[in-house]
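Hi R.,

Here's the chain you asked about this morning:
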Amino acid sequence: MEPFYAARAEADSPGFYSEATSLLADAHSELARLEARVIAQRRRIAGLSYALTPLHKVPVELLVDIFLRVVDSVDDIRAAIVLSAVCAYWREMALQTPRIWTKGLKIDAVAASDETVAVFTKLLHRSAPHPVDIELHHKDGGTLRKDILGVVAKISPRWGRFTASFDFFRSVRPLHDSGSGEGSDSAPIDGGWESVSLALPSLTYICVQCETLSNPIVLSAPRLTEADIAVHKYINLRDFLPWSQLTSLVLLNENTRGFCAILDRCTALTSLRLDVVAWRTTRLPQFAGRVTLPCLRLLEVSPVHRSSDEYTFEPFFEHYTCPALEDLQLAMEIEYNTNVEADFVAFLRRSPVLQRLRIHHCDMGPDILGDILRNIPAVTTLELYYSRDCVTEAFFEALTYHPQEQAATTPAQAPLMPRLHTLILEGTCGQYTVEALQGMIRSRWWVDDSEARDSPVARLKHVNVEYSVSLFGEDEHFEELEKKLRKEGLDVSISYG
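And here is the predicted structure, written out as tokens:
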């Protein structure tokens, strides 16, 4: 008889109810034993199956190293989750390796569900005691979740790379020493930060927004080398970070006040990107003296305008010297082109090893552009974008190498930009002839690369010139020149725009 109906039939026998509790307990015990055997057999099957694969011969240490390399290459916590889901053995290895759970922990600090917060918290615990990379983000609007802010603040000594798309330091305040730090049951609450020095011994990178703070906070981070700071209102950030040890800095500042006082202390920088408000020509700053940034190799400057008033960024170039600078990009706003003048030219003169110069949307006449060419002898790549009316016949003539004429001068005149091999001109709307362009290219291009050994100018590698169709129309001579040079092997593009 089927067991269910057999049990029901026994219910009619005398004394059944007195024995039912014991019988039920025995049945549950037997079921538990069977389930345990099933689990054991499944683990045995998994182990035997894994043993039949070549991968089982890989030592545990090497397998863990592979896991870490995968996670590091992806920089996303989902990589660790996928690895741990392959099989029971891999999951065991993953759970025993906290470093696997330290990369790419991201969460929406407003819209995350309770389940997501629970998983995020569990992953933070799995990564202990190693430094962990955290990214907090949210869309505009909504209330920040206190539980997320709390759990992140508690592990601040373990922040490795920390990113927040909002002002984290204004959203929470530290607890008393007795209640702060990982393992505390207390949680930060809303309100401004107290004036405090916050120890972040593992922090190497920080990306945060900064609003107005009533009391400054000082981050003590001995390993910090990279920072991305957005300042939306004037705030005294002089002691916010250990500026002197930074090697890479991105600074967005919507107010001209204070950012030079910060940069003056950043003497170890090798990379700097500035999106800052330019100065009104009627309110120029007064600096005490010139400051040298001795290690800076990459500089990207994007001055911002607040209105249609006349603005300038010349005081910046007058104030700083960057003798090791190799790559400079100056990108003005599209709506408000800004002049570059003598101080920018002098800055270039003080940057003797500059190799790449990119200029976007700058107002400068042919004379200023000529001065620029005469002061960048080491530049190999010159890129001009939408800097109108500065490229003329004189530009190409200045770059045309005339070996006989220059050799006849006493002393022999060195050619301008002798190392130039890449030239990009887009949206410059210059007035020049195809003969001027061809003459410059021909003086710096030859089919046989072996001739370069005897030439004082570098052989061109890439030329991209966009001429104005409104001035020339669709000139077939430009097209013919492009075809001829391409056939000879030069990477060249001559188009109209």
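One quick note: The mean pLDDT is 82.

Cheers,
M.
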